[in-house]
Specification:
This protein is α+β, with helices and mostly antiparallel strands. It has 10 helices and 8 strands. The protein is elongated and about 110 Å long. It starts with a helix and ends in a 23-residue tail after the last helix. The mean pLDDT is 77.
């Protein structure tokens, strides 16, 4: 029953998206019809019925440019489903296909809008018009311009792509879309411990990458390093505890780390760095004031970090509970000497 309810919800969302898409197309169709009517009125096709207003003679270029813009919008909306179906066959993932569509539409709009401006202003007056208007635009639209610069930097340097797991400032998640103004990410963490999705779609201005920087978890490889920290008492059998932690990690990620060693080493920016990478489950031991800290380090897929961490921890707890000479350290107090309790 739950699966059927989920399917009905998905179908309902698809229908709503389809209705919204049709409404957008209908809106642009109406605008295109109005523009074509005004253009026909301008050239006198309806002169027998309606007299052409004199003001329209001054805006004939603007009407033609608007017709081109409206037609471009309709054309992009019409070919989008076909492009998406074809692009998936040529790109590695649906996310890459979506990113290519975004770049394609931006290029088309830049060509159309620049061409429309050239046509409306005329080549002779364009330089003067652009000079005067640009100064005003830079002053008024500082934030949008910075967002556009950020988008251009993201697109040219491939800082991250749709589908990558990134951290921008204090926000962390999977990139869902990259627009000229914003980067949309499906948030993880926040009020949930572990790399679990919260359900929120976060909008981050592209200008933030210019001053906050970006941490990409999946650009060069989908693998990252993680660790499990366990504190054991000084009275415990430390060598046995270390061996148990190592065995638990090997049981979960040992075989995978053997097969992906080459991919892990691809993250090295220079040969000397590759020699420092951990390519098999390793336990590091450190002494503290009241316990011995054992940290097991391993590599795993970024999106599986929480699951792998949990599975290794459960195995360690189970194995430790079976050993009498290993105790997990925790804050507690030993009282030395007798206590006299007087009764009233």
């Amino acid at each position: 029953m739950r699966n059927r309810a989920s399917l009905r919800e998905i179908e309902s969302e698809i229908m709503e998206d389809a209705e919204t898409h049709r409404a957008i197309i209908a809106f642009w169709v109406i605008l295109l019809i109005i523009a074509v009517f005004l253009s026909a009125l301008r050239i006198g096709l309806f002169s027998a019925y309606v007299k052409t207003p004199s003001a329209m003679y001054d805006y004939d270029r603007s009407i033609t440019a608007f017709i081109v813009i409206a037609f471009t919008k309709l054309w992009l909306s019409a070919i989008h489903p076909l492009y998406r179906a074809v692009a998936v066959r040529f790109f590695r993932t649906h996310a890459a296909a979506k990113e290519s569509w975004r770049l394609f539409t931006h290029i088309v709009w830049i060509i159309v809008i620049v061409g429309a401006l050239l046509y409306i202003a005329g080549f002779q007056n364009l330089a003067l018009s652009v000079g005067l208007v640009s100064a005003a635009i830079v002053y008024v639209l500082q934030v949008p311009i910075l967002n556009t610069v950020g988008w251009f930097y993201i697109s040219t340097t491939k800082l991250y792509r749709i589908g990558d797991r990134v951290e921008i400032g204090e926000k962390k998640g999977d990139v869902a879309d990259i627009t000229i103004m914003h980067t949309l990410i499906r948030e993880i963490n926040n009020w949930i411990d572990g790399d679990i999705h919260t359900g929120r779609l976060i909008s981050i201005p592209n200008k933030d990458i210019l001053d906050k920087g970006v941490e990409n978890y999946t650009k060069s490889s989908e693998y990252i390093w993680d660790s499990v920290k366990v504190a054991v008492t000084y009275e415990s059998n430390h060598e046995k505890a270390r061996k148990i932690i190592e065995d638990c990690m090997k049981g979960v990620v040992g075989d995978e780390m053997k097969t992906v060693t080459r991919e892990i080493l691809k993250m090295a920016d220079f040969p000397e760095l590759a020699e420092l990478f951990i390519t098999k489950p390793t336990v590091f031991v450190k002494m503290a004031d009241s316990y011995v800290l054992m940290e097991g380090v391993y590599a795993c897929k970024s999106r599986e970090r929480s699951k792998i961490h949990s599975e290794i921890t459960q195995r360690i707890l189970k194995r430790f509970s079976e050993e009498e000479d290993i105790s997990i350290a925790y804050p507690h107090m030993h009282i030395v000497g007798g206590i006299n309790v007087s009764q009233q």
